[in-house]
Amino acid sequence: MNEIARMVTDEAATAMAGARIALLPIGSTEQHGHHLTYDTDYAIAVAFARRLAEDLGQTAVLCPGLPYGLSEHHLGFPGTLTLRPETLLGFLRDVAESIAQSGPRRIVVVNGHGGNVDAVRLAARGLRRDHGIVMAHLMWAGLAADVIAREVGSERYGHACEAETSVGMVLAPEVVRHDRIGEPGRPLPVPPHAAPPAPRVDLALQYHLLSGSGALGDARHASAELGKAIVAVAYSRALEFAKAFADEEV
């Protein structure tokens, strides 16, 4: 596996010159209810990206990631740390340009936090327009959205829920505090058509006004079996995409 952070100069030069794509994990440092640690999103993203790097071999390089993201909607819970959108955009642009300077012009952002999606999309548009760098974005929850919708029974879910907790059990078991999984709090009122997981109206919502516990969903239904089912679909689709993406001409 080509992991840039674990290399010395000549090794990195060889890896960057031979790789077709770069993998860049990003996440967040934010509350995840009473039973998942603050680094959950990043830990899952790194584990997912590392698995891709292992299977892609010399085709890919794994870059050090970013454990912070756009988490202002979680600031109602102490300990949450957030970036401003322009900060994350700047990070993505700067790192992408640095990668392209000595290596591949295709970058796959492996994201663990839904709040980062808009920034990655904007960064990708600018990088392609201004520098000819092609940035793709994937997240396990989007890749396996059909499986999650079929298997999750909660009316509202998507954060520290049965799906995310199950995926954590499989990809980053250290983030799950099994002894703290309990009955979910009652969801707080949200205007019509604006509630997760699939709102029809885009409304900036703050989690302390969505849920007293900070979680959406019922983690009591989480299991390694559900996590394996979600990860299997998400990962197979991610690997299929990455292999095809690596073959594209830029």
Description:
This protein is an alpha/beta fold and 250 residues long. The protein has a single domain, classed as Creatininase (Rossmann fold). The protein has helices spanning 9-18, 40-56, 85-102, 117-131, 140-143, 145-151, 162-171, 207-210, 224-247, and strands at residues 21-26, 60-62, 106-111, 134-139. Strands 2-1-3-4 form a four-stranded parallel sheet, sandwiched between helices. Helix 2 crosses helix 9 (224-247), helix 3 (85-102) packs across helix 4 (117-131) and helix 7 packs across helix 9. The longest helix has 24 residues, at 224-247. The protein is globular.
Features:
alpha/beta; Rossmann fold; 4-stranded parallel β-sheet; 8% strand
Secondary-structure map with pairings?
Blueprint: H1 9-18, E1 21-26, H2 40-56, E2 60-62, H3 85-102, E3 106-111, H4 117-131, E4 134-139, H5 140-143, H6 145-151, H7 162-171, H8 207-210, H9 224-247
Parallel strand pairs: 1-2, 1-3, 3-4
Helix pairs in contact: 2-9, 3-4, 7-9
Name of the level-1 CATH class: Alpha Beta
Number of helices: 9
Alpha carbon gyration radius:
18 Å
Please list the strands of the largest sheet in the order they lie side by side.
2-1-3-4
Q: How many runs of DSSP E, i.e. beta strands?
A: 4
Helix content: 40-55%
Percent of residues in beta strands: 5-15%
CATH topology annotation? Rossmann fold
Total of domains: 1
* CATH architectural label: 3-Layer(aba) Sandwich
Query: What number is the mean pLDDT?
Result: 96
Structural shape? globular
Largest sheet: 4 strands, parallel
The CATH superfamily bears the name Creatininase
Structural class: alpha/beta
Query: How widely separated are the two ends?
Result: 24 Å
